[in-house]
Amino acid sequence: MTLRDVLPHLGFLFALAVVPYLGVSGPTLNFLIAVLIVALAAQGWNVLGGFGGQYSFGHAAFFGSGAYATAILQVQLGWGAWVGLGASLVVGAIVGLAIGFLSFRAGLRGSYFALVTLAFAEVLRIVANAAGFTGGAAGLLIRLQPGFENLQFADRRHFYLLVLGFVGVALILSRWLERSRFGAHLVAVRENEEAAKALGVDTLRVKLGAIALSAAITACSGCLYAQYYLYIDANVAYGTWISVEALLAPIVGGIGTAFGPLVGALALHGVGEATKLLAGGRPGLDLVVFGGCLILAIAFAPRGIAGLAARVLQSRSAAREGR
Amino acid sequence: MLVVEGLTKRFAGLLAVNNASLSVAEGSITGLIGPNGAGKTTLFAMASGFLAPSAGRVLFTGEDITTEAPHRRARRGIARTFQIVKPFAGLSVRENIAVGAYLRHPQRAETLASATLIGERLGLGPQLDKPAASLTVAGRKRLEVARALATEPKLLLLDEVLAGLNPAEIRDILPLIRAIRDEGVTIFLIEHIMQAVMTLCETVHVLARGEIIAVGPPDMVCADPKVIEAYLGPGAAARLNAAEAPRA
Amino acid sequence: MFPTEILLEALLNGLMTGAIYALIALGLTLVYGVLHIINFAHGALLTCAMFLVWGGFALVGLDPYVALLPVVPLMFALGYGVQRWVIGPASHGEDNNILLVTLGLSIILENALLAVFRSDTRTLQTDYAFDVVPVGPLLLSTPRLIGAAATLVVTGLLWLLLNRTDTGRAIRAVAHEKLGAQLVGIDVRHIYAVTFGIGTACLGVVACLLMPIFYVNPRSGGVFVLVAFTIVVLGGMGSVPGALLGGLLIGVVESYSALYFGDSLGQLGIFVIFILVLLFRPSGLFGARA
After folding, report:
1. Which residue, A23, A156, B121, C44, is most buried by CB atoms nearer than 10 A?
2. Burial status of residue B134 (CB atoms within 10 A of its CB: 0-12, 13-18, 19 or more)
3. What is the pLDDT of residue C289?
């Protein structure tokens, strides 16, 4: 992968990086941070679901494990936030490998894989809600101590940049998937597992690699969530909401593309906010719109916003050539 | 190069392949023929690792690979095509071939160069950037061969790559298969089109009801009464001979 | 150890809850068996039906059991329409797409209900909600007993429908061999929609049986749907007798684990069973598909 391959991606990241310095309001910044955290979780989902074709309905399992890993280390054991961040990534990858090993070894795919991941996330939710070291139903509160070493920032813009940094890493990683042997193998598994095997692809290993990477990215998102709101409980960390968000954004934005999850998360939440503004404070309306976007994307834009954009660009260059 | 010893596959009481033994000589084009449902594809699946045999052994260059996974066999140099083609429909033709080429070339640039070369060689040059889903039947068959060839195999297993092609397309692809062999790739193929088998193969194995019933050069095998009966039913050989006798 | 009477009561309660579960699972498994899709919107559709029953009672004082008459046909129509004009056309026949479209539907339905009714929990006040029938030394809840009996009746009716009517025969033909059915002139899209409609009509029945003893809020259906998935997987995807047996079994398991471990861990037991069956016995405990 050369610098030229990632130039548009770096440009996009730079554009996002200057946004908070354009005088946006506090609530807007809050909103953007929340969207970026969701986008990161979605980027994780996209590795396994988009590139690998294994649709997980339970990415909450990884999000929650990442969130709890850092929260438990800090609250119960008094470790530092940066160690907690590292631990989140590792714990996420391990949970991913464990779920992946069990499901892929059993040959689960399609709907069965979706169901089993959903069930794993629910099991973790119930356990986290009942166990002692997770704070049970009361949840865990991370102490407010602004400072770089605690991964907490008095200036929200700095936290925004931190999250954007991780989103950037995930974006470049996704781009690498588009250009590398591992990525090609992963896509081959998605398109036809038998044919991939015949061409020398160790499909189990590729899927396990993908779920570990996918889970680690989503766990990182969970860790940042805990770090930003400084509070988690089982229904937030392991809740269905994040499993749904993680798969919605890539599908609407462009499944299996590097930009898809990020674009999808921004677009969805933009529309969601607009709905809330227009329709007043009724809860759930933004999600109604999300559900509608999901169905519309599947019906009319199988490659999401990225696919539509590519089509427009193509027809435009075709028109130019025509002249 | 490839040796199969006493290979047997049972599916819930059905004996698909029964104690089949055969060998494919290095540098040869060897055929596997037989009536429908004889177990040819099952035998191929066991040779390439997609099915575990109930009994028997598979040897490749002298090593026992009976229990080895398909991707390991591919790394050893066994490539296969599928009778029912399995293109990566969402990818371009070039990307399809590249998945095979990545086996020997970890770098993207080399892989793409190799994929382009192989694609052009198989007459897919103009379609390289089109989605594989847009290919015709003949194009898909070529893509199957191109992908397998991109893994730079020592042994190429071709499962009915001519089926569904028209005579002109078959005429085009035959010299290609021969050329692949001339570069040192051993070829083992399942084929129904006898004309192609006769012109391509040096040795032919005949499988009927899961058992190898004849081996030899194609013209000899085709004259074998057992083979004729396997295809046309019991007594057919005798009737054919009787029909020809008065004329002689 | 608990005394025999309590164990027996837990067993009977489990069976009665299990019967309701079975009826929910029946709709799910029927849709799976014929359309080969996993309907994630099943729970949200159940919630819709429950709100219908609640609305009928709250607005015009319609008794939940009488509500069967309007609610079941309404739910059938809803299911028919959703499959015919939303799921079918939007998913382009791809499994992963169908899964996502039904997920999208469940998000829409659940949150539309949330927007309209907020997250308040509502119940019906009927005179017979706490009636009991003495059976030997035990007192069994009348509405639950009615629910269990109705389940058996509905299962029987469904069996008659599938085996004794032309529509039923068409449904089974499509389930068995879609292409062949199409060739002999069966309108597969219509049959798909009818099957989906029957699946949701089952939910209409469930809602009427459930409302006298249960509450409704926009997330009520979700409580049941994962249980229903477990039952369907346990009984073998697409198997009607499997769903019935699986439902009863899960009802009893839940009842006993709640007795021994408390409510929330009882739920845990169900999910663990679910995962184990998926991983080790994906064809279900009761053998292959019907």
Report:
1. C44
2. exposed
3. 40
